[in-house]
Amino acid sequence: MSKTESLVYVALGGAGEIGMNMYLYGYGAEKKRRWIMVDAGVAFPDMDSSPGVDLITADPEFITSKAHALDAIFITHAHEDHVGAIGRLFPQLKAPIYAREFTAEIARGKMEEAGQDPSEVVTVGAWPEQVEVGPFKVGFLPISHSVPESSAMIIDSPAGRVFHTGDWKRDPDPQVGEPFDPDAIAEVSKDGILALVCDSTNVFSKNPGRSEAELVGPVTELLKNQPGLVVATTFASNVARLRTLALAGQAAGRSIAVIGRAMHKMIGTARKTGLLTDFPDMIDINDAAQLPAENVLVLASGSQGEGRAASAQLSRGGYGKLSLKDGDTFLFSSKVIPGNEVAVARIENALAMQGVDVVGEEGGLYHVSGHANRPDLEEMHRLTKPQFVIPMHGEYRHLREHAKLAEQGGFSAVVAPNGTMIDLSGNQPKVAEMIDTGRRYVDGSVIYGAMDGIVRDRIRMAIRGFLVVNIVLDEKNRLVGDAWVEARGLFTEVGGVEAGLQSELEEVITRDLAKAKAKVRADDEAVEKLVKQTAINKANRLIGKKPEVTVMINRLED
Amino acid sequence: MSKTESLVYVALGGAGEIGMNMYLYGYGAEKKRRWIMVDAGVAFPDMDSSPGVDLITADPEFITSKAHALDAIFITHAHEDHVGAIGRLFPQLKAPIYAREFTAEIARGKMEEAGQDPSEVVTVGAWPEQVEVGPFKVGFLPISHSVPESSAMIIDSPAGRVFHTGDWKRDPDPQVGEPFDPDAIAEVSKDGILALVCDSTNVFSKNPGRSEAELVGPVTELLKNQPGLVVATTFASNVARLRTLALAGQAAGRSIAVIGRAMHKMIGTARKTGLLTDFPDMIDINDAAQLPAENVLVLASGSQGEGRAASAQLSRGGYGKLSLKDGDTFLFSSKVIPGNEVAVARIENALAMQGVDVVGEEGGLYHVSGHANRPDLEEMHRLTKPQFVIPMHGEYRHLREHAKLAEQGGFSAVVAPNGTMIDLSGNQPKVAEMIDTGRRYVDGSVIYGAMDGIVRDRIRMAIRGFLVVNIVLDEKNRLVGDAWVEARGLFTEVGGVEAGLQSELEEVITRDLAKAKAKVRADDEAVEKLVKQTAINKANRLIGKKPEVTVMINRLED
Can you tell me the distance from the alpha carbon of B136 to that of A177, in angstroms, rounded to the nearest whole number? Predict the structure, then answer.
């Protein structure tokens, strides 16, 4: 245990997956360390691993267990995987939240949704403004990404300066918000960067990233040439893209209607914070339905195939009074996040059934990524000249590849997945400690751990089906009536009888219990074990399946 | 109802999804029609829509309900989505099965696995050999694809000739098996093709398809240049690819080990049927573990990230005595089927953690598709010059796009998704009838319908969690003891108490039952309704969740 003051970095989430970003920086002697957090985001559940869950967050236990050691939370930008957990986790974190204006507005919304006080979110100006918290001074350096006011965190400590990129891309002309500014990056880096903690999402993309500005021409051309109504979808938070689409629509003589709560929220926030001054007036979707189709552009949320979002609703028949028809066009100005392919294809098929033409990425004509590609990462290494690079925001394979890339460029690099605490104070990064990390599931109004067994039980019921066996035993441990079996999620029409499975199981359980020794019947655990075994074996013989079983033993008293 | 003799086509599966192919051709007056089936394949389940299911097949009810009307089943090739259901469905279909030698061997395996007589599968030679069944004469015209002996069905009837492509690609040099032969296709088409029923999988791929032969150089180069052990995965059935990989390994001085049951089966069958004469000798995986790493190539099944397959096992630590280490290479000589992205990435991350370099498609250097691209489809239209094109083997969007493509080339085309029966006899295709189609789930030892509610219940349990409420009522309808609640897949630590949820629910259910009128308590349905409502409302207040509820009412008799 070191008593020397040192600067440490550890990811609680985001370095091992793309999502649920949560990074900590600590300074001080180990026992007295003060901490700041960068980002508190969510990841999204899926049926494979987290059925029934609403949202996933990183487990903040490591920091929440240290009372009052957390001095501040900084939010780099307004994407869900960076800001989405702030409201739900705030009661545990209890530290002031700092963000730039647009991000702060979104963060306040998250606080309100979770019943927390939105005034805990403090608006901070861009670099060179700095927030002093404990031993840290932290500034928001504007950096281009696919949402306004994205910022790198410039984190100063007595041990030196860390450049935490947040999500970024190299875009000299992002249309909305600040361009990528190599001079500004070089300037903050000129006195030396201890560590570059850097986005790794697109490390496998070999060509330089492309600018949002490259889309304006093709999108305008496309919208002018479509004979019918056009619906365009993208990420709701991509304000620049929404503007590109809307202005192109306007140029094509189309009125603009926007559907989807998330999209309205983002456009509203961007207007309120002065980031979106030239967005055309919007019309109501029901009014749009009355106009000639070729005069309408609809911007719709749900680019990832989300079943309840506006795009999915449109594909299934309509939204409000608007429905699509033969000759209309649907533009996905977005990429499909891995795992969402089937959901997106479902929408494409539903649209095809209505005669709607689907236009996708078309080799990047209508979409550019918001993340830095391989050559852009190399440029960032060169601009900041860090003592070492710590890849973040990626699955393990991205982190490893990014570290290799940095090393190829002559930089030291360290792969530090979630829980690997790195001491940044020496000349070389070293592992200070391995801490426990994990996932928390937000589900209804409660939050619980991914390893608590709740979701494991759901998956088991979904895969195996479920049996409940009800037994009544009298005061002499004799079975009263027969065993009673209820089945869920199981094929029960055994032997051509509708509840044949249940009957067969009831018969064999009743028989086995009758045959069992009195000592067994007197013992709840022994009864449960016997009944489970009998039920599972018989079900397996009848339907080739070993269900989950719950046994309920009712004992009658004198 | 027409009494005229006519030729009809209908897809029971495969025209509306990629998978579970099952096509029917019928000839005769409507009441006396004789039928043949082409293919009987499976689709694969997923947690989103079919948790706990083993395999999915098309519902053959339309044909099995017509006793003895099915004269024969023809299998185009040995892929699971064409042959996989033959064993399980045979007891209902009960018609002789015809296939070429390699396919027949695989089909016999499917029959044996399902406890059926493999001798029901009859081996047929290639075109010009024909099988005469009822009013049909059917021949197997060799066509290139990614599994040996793939064939188009040349279906002659009194109404004319149908060209049913099966799965195909345009490959002049497929390495194993017969090349794409435009002259042979033109020859069988020269007297006129009534309908071209054609694979649509790759209709959105704009460039001409590439030959298997193009991979030989790059793969050999790659295997020569890797410093450590190389593992390569691909589809087990892609015998040509396995040969390409093995010969490249041999050229690079590597011994070849093969792991995975499916891969051994395919290699064995290809050797047995004389299709694979130059495949190098294989060594045991445990012997391979003793060799210098750079002298070993392992061919492993599981290219789609299947959790139990050899590739996944290797990524998690090892297979037999072999484990991977820093400097080894893992080659995915395959594409990721939509929906499998996350599973494949899981393997890539696990490999990255072991320091293993992953090589993927690399823009087609190490993988080519087995399906015909857009220009290849146009070539097929031109070669066969059909009266009309019926797109098959695709989701709806593929079928629609393929029909548009055919029409652009001057051909008539009709989109006929599953259940749309097309009369092929006239000058123009017309819809003869719409029939019910659906999916059957193979689950353990039983098969049931997708709409039977079994899987719906599983999904509900997985999303909502599950409560069982046990009630004992005496002969006077009085509650004996308290209600008893068991919870599965639910957060239960309410109020800091381990089973707080159950306690709270028991209390409120007991109270509500006590307050209920005697008439209510006397009626099982009324009790159930009351208990469910109380349980759901209370759970929603406590944990923000509305679980599935089963109520078990035990009534004591005098």
Answer: 69
Q: Are residues A229 and A197 in the same domain?
A: no
Q: Which residues in chain B touch residue A401, judged by CB atoms under 8 angstroms apart?
A: 352
CB nearest to A52's CB, from B349, B358, B462: B462
Segment A109-123 shows an average pLDDT of 97
Cβ density class B438-469: b for 16+ within 10 Å, e for less: bbbbbbbebbbebeeebbebbbbbbbbbbbbb
Residue with tokens 């071209």: B196
Residue of B nearest to A446 (CA): B543
Residue A51 distance to chain B (closest CA, Å): 5
Nearest CA in chain A to B51: A463
Give the residue numbers spanning the domain of B500.
Answer: 465-555
pLDDT tens per residue, range B224-262: 999 999 999 999 999 999 999 999 999 999 999 999 999
- Mutant choice from A491, A536, A556 vs B, greatest count of B C-beta within 10 A: A491
Residues B394 and B277 in one domain: no
ipTM at complex level = 0.94
Question: H/E element holding A142?
Answer: strand A136-142
Q: What does the pLDDT look like over A230-258, one tens digit per residue?
A: 999 999 999 999 999 999 999 999 999 99
Q: pLDDT by residue for chain B (558 residues), tens digit each?
A: 456 899 999 999 999 999 999 999 999 998 899 999 999 999 999 999 999 999 999 999 999 999 789 999 999 999 999 999 999 999 999 999 999 999 999 999 999 999 999 999 999 999 999 999 999 999 999 999 999 999 999 999 999 999 999 999 999 999 998 999 999 999 999 999 999 999 999 999 999 999 999 999 999 999 999 999 999 999 999 999 999 999 999 999 999 999 999 999 999 999 999 999 999 999 999 999 999 999 999 999 999 999 999 999 999 989 999 999 999 999 999 999 988 999 999 999 999 999 999 998 777 899 999 999 999 999 999 999 999 999 999 999 999 999 999 999 999 999 999 999 999 988 788 999 999 999 999 999 999 999 999 999 999 999 999 999 999 999 999 999 999 999 999 999 999 999 999 999 999 999 999 999 999 999 999 999 999 999 999 999 999 999 999 999 999 876
Beta carbons within 8 Å of B316's beta carbon, 6+ residues apart: B350
Domain boundary among B296, B328, B359: B359
Contact check, Cβ <8 Å, B554/A466: no
Query: Nearest 5°: CA angle at B87, between B86 and B91?
Result: 95
The pTM of this model reads: 0.95
Q: Are residues B36 and B168 part of one domain?
A: yes
What chain B residue is nearest to A457 in terms of C-alpha separation? B489
Per the CB < 8 Å rule, is A488 touching B352?
no
Q: Point out which residues pair with B122 in neighbouring strands.
A: B98
Shortest distance, CA B50 to any CA of chain A (angstroms): 9
Q: Check A352 against B396: CB less than 8 A apart.
A: yes
Q: By CA distance, what is B360's nearest residue in A? A: A204
Question: Does B448 contact A396 at a Cβ distance shorter than 8 Å?
Answer: no
Dihedral, CA of residue B521, residue B523, residue B528 and residue B530, to nearest 10: -50
Interface test with A, best of B342, B396, B458 (most A CBs within 10 A): B458
CA distance A141 to chain B (A): 32
Which pair of structure tokens corresponds to residue B484?
A: 């008893």
Residue of A nearest to B401 (CA): A352
How does B317-355 read in b/e, with b if 16+ C-beta sit within 10 Å? eebbebebeeebbbbbbbbbbebbbbbbbbbbbbbbbbe
Same domain, B398 and B515: no
Q: Backbone phi, then psi, for B71, in 5-degree steps?
A: -90, -30
Between chains, do B341 and A338 touch, taking CB under 8 Å as contact?
Answer: yes
CA angle, B497 then B500 then B502, to 5°? 150
Same domain flag for A230 and A181: no
Residues B305, B415 within the same domain = no
Compute the nearest-CA separation of B272 from chain A (Å): 33
